[in-house]
Automatic annotation (TrEMBL):
Name of the molecule in the record: VIT domain-containing protein
Domain VIT as annotated: residue spans: 1-125
Pfam families (alphabetical): VIT
UniProt xrefs under PROSITE patterns: VIT
PANTHER family: VON WILLEBRAND FACTOR A DOMAIN-CONTAINING PROTEIN 5A
Organism: Tritrichomonas foetus
Region entry Disordered, spans: 613-640
Bias (Low complexity) ranges: 618-634
Domain of life where this protein originates: Eukaryota
Length: 783
């Protein structure tokens, strides 16, 4: 009567799949599953799985015995009374309920032996806008094959099918960065996967050929017009210094390759710190430590110290310090936050609920490999969420924090829809944001009267200061914007917005039943067991309990005392441990003749048949009698000859000699002949190596480059000896800028801040010189 924990036989979940559509930056999908009772008695089953923060569940459909019923998703416990009453009447019932943590619990009962039931939970989500596309994170956590073997479980495979289209931009690529099992057809815009088996949620990165400057999707329903606006604000020039504190969660969830990639991104971040700004690095969690007591300005020595600190992955003397304690220590040490802007960058997966941001600091949250969901946490804590599309964009995402803090937030931002204006909260420069708006009925009617002749939606324009951005507008192909607006309004609305809250509540909880009821012709006989299944980041598991001892609310008795089980005492192992190979065989050494360099000389090579182990007597005889036989290669008149080997026939041995000098002279003659055949105007340029990170590491703290010895091996071009009438440090700085732009045009986001720091040095050294012209002339002469 219990579900097997060894083979998984008896657990009701038989199939899981996600199907949906992604159109113009919004997604409507369904989480579908098939449940079957494989036991010999009736069961009630509950299936719980998490949804990312920001996913709004809309409908719940059930197919039982050919009867299809649609209901809404319950958002309170009132529907459970109706569900229990239906089970008491021996009828079939099902319901889906979402809690405050956005976890979905699906209850199904009662299933007789061999009975099946199919469910579909529909949800909507707005994709995270990026400067070059959109990013979607889906709830697809399930155990991997190795985890299944460890737990002894065989969960069902998770299937995926998504259709992707965009009406306003041309899609350049569609990728799933952290999953290689997907099949992507860019021409059809399809993503398929028959066995999705991963620990972290699924990433879907949609990249456009052009920058995502902005767009506006609108939807008209019941006399209301809902808008989904996406826009990218322009960058600004830094006008104040900042102090950056990077807090990195050193946990056990990341792999070695991911940690290495993250450390490489932090190297670019340290090298891109603007002149006059401060920096500090903090590790919390395992091996917690702090680079400096307070953020400091990075000179040449401190920059080397910071870069060396990133290579420190383990310290036997460090302790484990939680985030709250480390955060409080950092905040207490920063005493000049009112004078110098303090920026705290948190790189991790989750934050404790008791965390309260300090009002004098600006917080940026990064979750590079999506072990959690920082988007809603950032909204609740008043921080800025930086999405990371894939591993290749991690460096650019981290460097965007420096760009966004160049100036203060942009205020007085307005969104103009026709003649109406909507005030938007302050936005961050250089940041791609999205907002959901409701156009009032009267405003929508006035705008529609003015546009009756053209039947066109009014122009949508984003304005602030001297900046005006007209957004392309299109009607949403998926009627889900009103659900997204209602889901966000229920969390962010002020108490005085009673009309908006009432409309949002009406959209999310329509006047329909939240319990699916199917009447049975015959009662189900037998003792009913309750089977719980859960899909999470840890994996899928199930337990089986009798209905008589199982409480429906799953709460423990407060008077129940749970005694912890003592840890087993390890018994000493026999010493010494037996060797796995008690009689190791000697390793054959067929090439022992060539292991000693001296043996390569002709005097030591006689015949393979005469090889034997040399004794001390042989060495003494060689030292006394054979000193004159050692060849002397310092004699220029004698040609060195080398025995390559010997060919042994039936009776005779043939020795092969190679004239080294003759072979070298022949190769030189061949090279000279090829050079003579080459046209005189087409010399073959020597390719010099170029290493971007190494070049950035050689930059001085003031932004200049002066170390010609090491730059010659990494800048990609030969360094000229003439300085064109400039100071040597000025010329070298301009020369390296030209080299970087020529060699790495596709990595502009990685070195953009470093180039700005170098240009600042050149302008401050001599403002009268047109440095753009100087750099262009140097670039024209690069070969």
């Amino acid at each position: 009567m219990k579900a097997s924990l060894i083979t998984g036989e008896g657990q009701p979940v038989q199939e899981l799949r996600i199907t949906g559509h992604i159109k113009d930056g919004i997604c409507r999908a369904a989480f579908k599953g098939t449940f079957e009772n494989k036991l010999d008695h009736p069961i009630e089953t509950s299936f719980t799985f998490p949804l990312p923060q920001g996913v709004c569940s809309t409908q719940f459909k059930v197919n039982f015995g050919g009867t299809k019923v649609t209901s809404r998703v319950a958002r309170d416990d009132n529907a459970r009374i109706e569900y229990d009453d239906t089970l008491a009447q021996s009828d079939f019932a099902a319901m889906a309920q979402v809690n405050d943590k956005n976890e979905i619990r699906i209850d199904i009962g009662t299933l007789a032996p061999k009975e099946t039931c199919k469910i579909a939970l529909y949800f909507v989500i707005a994709l995270n806008p990026l400067s070059n596309g959109f990013l979607l994170v889906l709830p697809t956590s399930i155990t991997s094959f190795s985890e299944n073997l460890r737990l002894g479980l065989t969960p069902p495979p998770l299937k995926l099918h998504l259709d992707i289209t965009d009406s306003l931009s041309k899609i350049k690529s569609i990728t799933t960065p952290f999953n290689k099992n997907t099949q992507i057809d860019l021409s059809k815009g399809e993503i398929k996967c028959d066995e999705l088996s991963i620990f972290s949620p699924l990433h879907v990165f949609i990249q456009f050929e052009e920058k995502n400057l902005g767009r506006c999707l609108y939807q008209k329903i019941d006399g209301n017009t809902f808008l989904n606006v996406v826009a990218t604000t322009p960058r600004t020039i830094r006008d104040h210094p900042s102090q950056f504190t990077v807090m990195y969660e050193n946990g056990s969830s990341l792999t070695g390759g991911q940690i290495s990639l993250l450390m490489r991104a932090l190297e670019f971040f340290i090298l891109s710190i603007p002149h006059g700004c401060k920096f500090n690095y903090v590790n919390f969690g395992f091996d917690a430590f702090t680079l400096f007591d307070v953020p400091l300005i990075l000179d040449n020595d401190k920059t080397k110290q910071a870069l060396a600190c990133l290579k420190r992955q383990h310290d036997p003397y460090s302790k484990t310090i939680e985030f709250i304690q480390m955060h409080d220590n950092i905040i207490n040490n920063i005493t000049d936050a009112d004078e110098v802007e303090s920026v705290i960058v948190i790189i991790g997966s989750s934050l404790p609920n008791e965390f309260k941001p300090s009002p004098n600091h600006n917080y940026f949250l990064l979750d590079p490999f999506t072990r959690g969901d920082f988007r809603i946490i950032a909204q609740e804590k008043g921080a800025c969420y930086i999405p990371v599309a894939d591993e290749s964009s991690l460096i650019a995402s981290l460097l965007s924090v420096i760009k966004m803090t160049a100036t203060a937030e942009i205020e007085n931002v307005k969104l103009c829809v026709g003649d109406e204006e909507f005030k938007i909260p302050p936005v961050i420069p250089g940041y791609t944001f999205s907002t959901l708006l409701l156009l009032d009925k009267h405003e929508e009617e006035d705008n529609s009267k003015k546009n009756d002749s053209t039947d066109k939606f009014p122009d949508v324009k984003l304005t602030f200061a001297d900046f005006d951005l007209i957004l392309p507008t299109i009607e949403s192909p998926l009627p889900i914007i009103h659900h997204l607006w209602a889901f966000e309004k229920m969390k962010t609305a002020a108490p005085e917005e009673k009309a908006a809250l009432a409309l949002a509540n009406q959209i999310l909880t329509p006047d329909t039943s939240s319990v699916v009821v199917v009447e049975r012709d015959e009662e189900v006989e037998g003792e009913v067991s309750h089977v719980d299944s859960r899909l999470s980041r840890i994996g899928i598991g199930w337990i089986d309990e009798s209905a008589e001892t199982k409480q429906k609310d799953h709460n423990h008795d407060d008077d129940e005392i749970i005694h912890p089980q003592p840890m087993p005492i390890p018994h000493p192992l026999p010493h010494p441990l037996p060797h796995p190979f008690p009689h190791p065989l000697p390793r054959p050494r067929p090439f022992v003749l060539y292991r000693n360099p001296r043996i390569r000389e002709p005097v030591f090579i006689n015949n393979n048949n005469n090889l034997r182990r040399r004794t001390d007597l042989d060495y003494n005889n060689n030292n006394n009698n054979n000193n004159n036989n050692i060849p002397n290669h310092s004699n220029e008149n004698k040609k060195p000859e080398l025995f390559v080997g010997s060919m042994k026939g039936n009776s005779n041995t043939t020795e092969m000699r190679v004239d080294i000098l003759a072979r070298l002279q022949q190769r030189q003659r061949e090279a000279q002949e090829k050079a003579a055949q080459r046209p005189p105007g087409d010399p073959k340029a020597k390719k010099l190596p170029f290493f971007l990170l190494r070049v950035l590491q050689l930059q001085n703290a003031d932004g200049s480059w002066t170390n010609e010895k090491f730059l010659a091996n990494s800048c990609g071009f030969s360094i000229p000896t003439e300085s064109r009438g400039l100071k040597r440090e000025q010329f070298m700085t301009a020369f390296i800028i030209a080299c970087i732009r020529r060699k790495a045009p596709a990595d502009e986001e990685k070195y953009e801040l470093v180039i700005e720091k170098a240009l600042t040095f050149l302008i401050e050294s001599d403002p009268a010189i047109d440095w753009d012209t100087v750099i262009s002339s140097i670039d024209a002469d690069l070969q």
